[in-house]
Amino acid sequence: MTDRRDPELEGVSPAPAEESADPYMTDVMSVGDASVLRDAEAAPVTSAEPVPDATRATLGISHRRARRGALFGRRGAEVPTAGADDVTSVIAPPSAPDFPPPTTPPVHATSSAGYAVPAASVRASSVSLLGGASATAERLAEAERIAARQEELSELDARSISAWFGDHQVLLDVSLTMPAGQVTALIGPSGCGKSTFLRILNRMHELVPSASLAGEVRLDGDDIYDPSHRLIDARKDIGMVFQKPNPFPAMSIYDNVIAGLKLTGMRASRDEKDHLVETSLQSAGLWKEVKDRLRAPGGGLSGGQQQRLCIARSLAIKPKVLLMDEPCSALDPTSTRVIEETMGELQKELTIVIVTHNMQQAQRVSQQCAFFLASQGQPGHIVEHGDTEAMFDSPIDPRTYDYVNGRFG
Ligand SMILES: Nc1ncnc2c1ncn2[C@@H]1O[C@H](COP(=O)(O)OP(=O)(O)O)[C@@H](O)[C@H]1O
Ligand SMILES: [Mg+2]
Questions:
Q1: How many structural domains are present in the chain?
Q2: What residue spans of 265-328 are helical by DSSP H?
Q3: What angle (nearest 5°) sits at the alpha carbon of residue 22, between those of residues 181 and 372?
Q4: Three-class DSSP category at 136
Q5: Which atom of ligand 1 is nearest to the CA of 190?
Q6: Which of 62, 198, 258, 339 could form a disulfide with 1 if both were Cys (CB 3.0 to 4.6 A apart)?
Q7: Using CA positions, which residue lies closest to atom 8 of ligand 1?
Q8: CATH assignment at residue 324
Q9: Is 310 in the pocket of ligand 1 (CB under 6 A)?
């Protein structure tokens, strides 16, 4: 076992003295505050399948707690030995078969350049229906713009992810491609590993002292767990929004938005900050409501506004992917609708992965969907994934059918 802390994080100043409503900055830049996971109040682990000693040794499992909670084992990867009491070894990555590629979204338009444009992208566009040839030309031009923009966005690809808390395996061989510029919804009953999977996508899983994992997470082809990939970059590129809005309550709205800059070491002039605050709040759909009170405390906003403030804070450091763990479950229907609309706009700029228990929300906001399930005592896995419409209208697996139709979970 080795200490996987990024040495660069040693130089990062600790979280500000002000207490956030939730563990702050793991969404943009954790410095190892494991309390971030208190939102993931773990259900008691009752069904831990003991890992045989030989496997334990082979996989490099250790239970030693890290000083700042970042001691982390990545199974199936080559891990240099860190200390005499460590159990470390090297095995080949699990040779699980590749998961079938995700279903291609239905193509509703093809650009003149030959780009296939997903239905949702076309829905999201504001093409006027003037009728006739000019409308068609306009629609094709818009489709082309969307396709071009999507080419610049980032794809996240999780391959053969397995995860453990101590000896308790909670995910088994999960592979999922989260396409660029689309919203991928993770659905499934409580406890099947959705939040764990999400936290693995931006290296927050390793904040739990006993946590370990196997597999790869590729952002545009680069494994974010590769030793050459800096933790700080993974957190910058892949932002996170939690279930409970977690702004600094006493800090101004303005300072909340740019709080991530300091912790990521990004420098900006006053003008640049002003611009960043405005554009981030605009993208988060909050600018109009707060532009005249940027110096007011973030804690004075409504729950829905606070959540959008947290989205703005994540956006301010220009992530390529935004992870959202049940971002609306603590909000009223109106705030939920505003956040959903905001997501529709945001996906033009970045890739989104959302965990939701709300099946209507999954259908409204996502183009891709993955159904997670954990049988009694077994680790969570993906039963079925693909185009959201197909998952809801004609699921292949009867368990998917039952879940999306509210028969369990
Ligand atoms: N910090 C933790 N320590 C130990 N076990 C945990 C921790 N977090 C989650 N778990 C366990 O991992 C499993 C998956 O949890 P989670 O990823 O939160 O599921 P979901 O988000 O689908 O409800 C559960 O059995 C849960 O008890
Ligand atoms: Mg969860």
A1: 2
A2: 270-283, 287-290, 303-316
A3: 50
A4: helix
A5: 23
A6: 62
A7: 42
A8: 3.40.50.300
A9: no
Our answer on whether the CB atom of 37 is closer than 6 Å to any ligand 1 atom is yes
The rounded distance, in Å, linking the Cα atoms of 93 and 303 is 43
Q: What is the spatial distance between Cα 346 and Cα 378, in angstroms, rounded to a whole number?
A: 36
Same domain, 197 and 330: yes
Tell me the ligand closest to 34's alpha carbon: 1
Show the tokens assigned to 183: 């919203």
Tens digit of each residue's pLDDT (9 = 90 or more) over 90-125: 222 333 333 333 333 333 333 333 333 333 333 333
| Residues 57, 123 within the same domain | no
Ligand nearest to the CA of 46: 1
Tokens 């190892």 sit at which residue?
Answer: 32
Judged on CB neighbours under 10 Å (0-12, 13-18, 19+), 52 is exposed
**Threshold 0.85, pTM exceeds:** no
Q: Please say whether the beta carbons of 345 and 376 come within 8 A.
A: no
Calpha distance 233→224 (Å, rounded)? 8
What secondary structure letter does DSSP report for 170? E
90 Cβ below 6 A of ligand 1: no
Q: Is beta strand 211-219 parallel, antiparallel or unpaired with respect to 222-223? A: antiparallel
**Residue range 15-37: mean pLDDT, rounded:** 38
Please give the Cα distance from 358 to 379 (Å, whole number).
Answer: 23
Which of 82-91, 161-170, 264-273 has the highest mean predicted lDDT (pLDDT)?
A: 161-170
Both tokens of 361, joined, read 């929300």
